[in-house]
Amino acid sequence: MSHTSQIRRRWALDDDTVEAIVQGRPIDGQFDPLVAFARQVRTAAVDLPGPAPSDELARILRGDTKINQETHSMDVGRFAAIAARVASLGTAARIGLGAAIAAASVAGAGAAGALPGPANDAVRGAIETVSPVDFADEAPEHPENFGDEVSDDATGGNDGENGVDGQQISEEAPGADHRPDSAGSSDEGPGQPDSTGLDRADETPAEPHAPDSVPSGNGGDGNGGQPEVIPSTVPSLPDQSQGHGRP
Amino acid sequence: MAQMDRFDGEFDAVLAAAVVGAPWALERIFTTLSPIVAGYLRMQGAHEPEDLTSEVFVAVLRKVATFRGDEAGFRSWVFTIAHRRLIDERRRAVRHSLVTAMGDDYDAPAPDDVAESALQSLAAERVRELCDRLVPDQRDVLLLRLVGRLTVDEVAATIGKTPGAVKALQRRGFRAVGRILEREGVPL
């Protein structure tokens, strides 16, 4: 077994161990570095005093700015500005603005199917004439009994497990003889950069078959092509125990 | 980790007073929760963690009347807002090409004990650097759990993933930290 594999195996954690680390409960001494890390994260984040408030926040804290009122006053102010602007328009401009608002409202309602049938058809026809938009005439047809029956594979009626174990199906499917013995080939595509099948694997019926991590190589540690750790840009601290450069 | 009550059992009274705009209650919410929110944002490498903390609390205090729940739920709600503001800041930073190394702009308060403060600063820097090397989703989960003290379900709601995905991310995040520490042999 390679050194890398030994490191991976040593840091194989289950949910109970993780929860113990997060909650600061005593656990096996081999995880002491992680316990120290968790403690340091809390200390580094929490031990500093809170920041000074910004001017806006300070006004709220002093009660100079009433909470829950600013949005309302902004809306009133914006409405008043718009009303004043409309009032300043000439008669012809006001008629044009009103017609444009009315046309936009009818077109929107027609596109959404909110008008009575004949009016709806007329508006949609007009939109199709003047634009590349094409409304589907009918909803897709389904058999009378569509959705009445759900597969036993999905309900768990055949094996007591909701959903489908993909590995089980693949072993029964044509071509099973040509398939690899386990999932997670590193030759597979990198997937999403911040989400992988491994994130969801524990929630599926195939959980017993899910690998702990994707083999290294293309695809990394199951992070969809991202390395699990990002190379440091900060040089490591010198090991003071060896006393390099000291008399 | 027992759920920590940062309001000494007075959360309901503080919330009721904050809803009607009592300055003492608004101040209490800010002074109680702003250190951990600022710490979370700092550990996440926020460009301006202190300004962002103020933004978070402006939003929290303006919306406080809409909140229903207990102290743990309130903390989770505050961290949800903080996390979203952080994402907004990152998007703004990408748009403006403001790529900043974590913690570059952080100025710690003047220390009383210089030697002790230097050690703390070194450890804090080391921890921040470790967190920076994690995959972003893993870092989000670990920091929300360790700093925010959110439960798995609360973290799932905050970052929009399932509880199972959150558990997987925290397992892998801790594994990654363990491997880094073992490979590089640098004590915390």
Helical residues, percent of chain B: 55-70%
> Roughly how many Å is the radius of gyration of chain B?
17 Å
Q: What's the SSE pattern of chain B?
A: HHHHHHHH
Q: Any idea of the CATH topology of the largest domain in chain B? A: Rna Polymerase Sigma Factor, Chain: A
Sheet bearing the most strands of chain A, described?
A: none
Which percent band covers the strand fraction of chain B?
under 5%
Number of strands of chain B: 0
Please state the CA-atom Rg of chain A, rounded to the nearest Å. Answer: 32 Å
Count helical runs of chain A. Answer: 10
Could you report the average pLDDT of chain A, rounded to the nearest whole number? 61
Shape of chain A: flat
Biggest sheet descriptor of chain B: none
> What is the annotated CATH architecture of the largest domain in chain B?
Orthogonal Bundle
Order of helices and strands of chain A: HHHHHHHHHH
Strand content of chain A: under 5%
Provide the domain count of chain B.
Answer: 2
Helix and strand composition category of chain A: mainly alpha
Distance between the termini of chain B: 21 Å
Secondary structure tally, helices of chain B? 8
Q: Which outline of chain B best applies?
A: globular
Task: Describe the structure in your own words.
The complex is a heterodimer of chains A (247) and B (188). Chain A contains 10 helices and no strands. Chain A is mainly alpha-helical. Chain A is flat. Residues 70-79, 137-142, 181-194, 216-226 and 236-247 of chain A have low confidence and may be disordered. Chain B has 2 domains: 7-102, RNA polymerase sigma factor, region 2, helix turn helix motif (Rna Polymerase Sigma Factor, Chain: A), CATH 1.10.1740.10; 110-188, Orthogonal Bundle (Arc Repressor Mutant, subunit A). Chain B is globular. Residues 99-111 of chain B have low confidence and may be disordered. The longest helix of chain B has 25 residues, at 71-95. The interface between A and B is large, with 69 and 80 residues.
